[in-house]
């Protein structure tokens, strides 16, 4: 994303080489430094730039036919370039931004103004450039890392610092709240310049609970945490692998499982929200790797191998949905509320917007089975649309052993339960249904081809048996 523009690509039908004249989102005068989708609106995205501005874009529901140059709102308040933007996890129309003026600004987008000149809160406690931001589950706390090597936990409404870590043995670069575990995870470097991750108690940042050196590479480590399965994924810039761990409240807290390996290094990475996963194939996480050496974006799916193709309830606990639980004014007024939960079962309704259920563990802390290698016949997504999948170990997960349910016999059509999946009611639901059906058609064609090969093999075996019986 350079030159003040960025592209929006389809995740299912967009394969092959991109047209040089492909429509872009333009409007910034400087390089775009960060973009974030609105978690409550699939057609709204925020971007920030070196031109010290933040823009909110309304994306057309159809594929873009021309460059998008008119933004819905522009936020002007930072004195220097803006490097980070983050949407509030539970409140609608609340956006956070961090600039090179060392300030975090809180914006209320619930206004009629097209250009917002002043934020509703300004947090001015950092002594250097802010490197990352992360919210806790209900958005009442904000954690930041700074170039001054400190981790801070802030009350964003009171504009105060609640906790501060200045531990000299760990120079933090990225920080992440770990769901409801009341813990923080940071990545950075040790005093010997090894890449390192550290786990912290949210209420005491004096000394980390545990530290783990990973390697001596220089690329920044990006952590991704799935609170539904207690899985931590560690991605390094310039690396070709993705490590993953199980996180638990008890010692040793972090248990290494295994890793995905590729010969192609990633320069950047993004993730698909849980609502966009393919639950019919037991996909629990999906990455999109930016591979600049081959000029492609490669999807990598983390899949729990199951023989049944019906919905697996034990690996999909209720997750945060696409509806805010608070208005902007309620949150600014001091209210806190957890995310509204939804079931990922096709056609299910919203669940209670009350606090999240207890965290579930994913894997036993013993060493996992070796991962299955990618099939050498699979091609990158940019060539023919195949989706490389990385199958998680065959070992039975802990939550599967504890919460194993008897598989329900159901009638399936195109991967959906025809009794529990009502027809789509909106254009967005219709598009999602269409994409899933296209994927299911492709899978069924592969299955038919395999069955035809098996049938021919059986015919040959029967023919050989008949010939041998005739000889006797």
From TrEMBL:
PROSITE patterns membership: WD_REPEATS_1 (PS00678), WD_REPEATS_2 (PS50082), WD_REPEATS_REGION (PS50294)
UniProt keyword list: Coiled coil, Repeat, WD repeat
Record region (Disordered): 355-382
Pfam family, one: WD40
GO molecular function: actin filament binding
InterPro entries for this protein: Coronin, WD40/YVTN_repeat-like_dom_sf, WD40_repeat_CS, WD40_repeat_dom_sf, WD40_rpt
Swiss-Prot/TrEMBL WD repeat ranges: 25-59, 75-117, 123-164
Coiled coil residues, start to end: 441-468
Family of this protein: Belongs to the WD repeat coronin family.
Name listed for the protein in its UniProt record: Coronin
Gene: CORO2A
């Amino acid at each position: 994303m350079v030159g003040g523009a960025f592209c929006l690509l389809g995740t299912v039908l967009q394969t092959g080489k991109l047209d040089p004249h492909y429509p872009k989102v333009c409007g910034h005068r400087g390089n775009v430094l960060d973009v974030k989708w609105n978690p409550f609106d699939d057609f709204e995205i925020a971007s920030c730039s070196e031109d010290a501005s933040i823009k909110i874009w309304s994306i057309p529901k159809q594929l873009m036919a021309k460059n998008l140059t008119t933004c819905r709102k522009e936020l002007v308040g930072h004195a220097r370039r803006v490097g980070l933007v983050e949407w509030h996890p539970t409140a609608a129309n609340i956006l956070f931004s961090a600039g090179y003026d060392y300030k975090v600004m809180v914006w209320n987008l619930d206004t009629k103004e097209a250009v917002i000149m002043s934020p509703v809160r300004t947090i001015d406690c950092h002594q250097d450039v802010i490197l990352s931001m992360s919210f806790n589950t209900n958005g009442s706390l904000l954690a930041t890392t700074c170039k001054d090597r400190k981790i801070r936990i802030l009350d964003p409404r009171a504009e105060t610092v609640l906790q501060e870590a200045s531990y000299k043995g760990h120079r933090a670069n990225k920080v992440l709240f770990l769901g409801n575990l009341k813990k923080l995870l940071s990545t950075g470097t040790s005093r010997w310049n090894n890449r390192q991750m550290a786990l912290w108690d949210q209420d005491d940042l004096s000394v980390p609970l545990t530290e783990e050196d990973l390697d001596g590479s220089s690329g920044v480590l990006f952590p991704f945490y799935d609170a539904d399965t207690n899985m931590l994924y560690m991605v390094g810039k310039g690396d070709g692998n993705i490590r993953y761990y199980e996180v638990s409240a008890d010692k040793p807290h972090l248990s290494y499982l295994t890793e995905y390996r590729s010969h192609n290094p990633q320069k950047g990475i993004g993730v698909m929200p849980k609502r966009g996963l393919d639950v019919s194939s037991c996909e629990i996480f999906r990455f999109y790797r930016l591979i600049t050496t081959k000029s492609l974006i490669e999807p990598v799916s983390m899949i729990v191998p199951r023989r049944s193709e019906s919905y697996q309830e034990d690996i999909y606990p209720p997750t945060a949905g696409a509806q805010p639980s608070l208005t902007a004014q309620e949150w600014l007024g001091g209210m806190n509320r957890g995310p509204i939960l939804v079931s990922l079962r096709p056609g299910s309704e919203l669940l209670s917007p009350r606090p999240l259920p207890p965290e579930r563990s994913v894997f036993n802390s013993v060493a996992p089975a070796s991962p299955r290698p990618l099939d050498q016949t699979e091609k990158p997504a940019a060539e023919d649309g195949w989706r490389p999948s990385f199958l998680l170990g065959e070992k039975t997960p802990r939550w599967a052993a504890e919460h194993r349910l008897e598989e329900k016999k159901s009638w399936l059509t195109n991967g959906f339960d025809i009794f529990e999946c009502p027809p789509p009611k909106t254009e967005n639901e219709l598009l999602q249904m269409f994409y899933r059906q296209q994927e299911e058609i492709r899978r069924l064609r592969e299955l038919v081809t395999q069955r035809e090969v098996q049938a021919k093999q059986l015919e040959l075996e029967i023919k050989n048996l008949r010939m041998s019986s005739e000889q006797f």
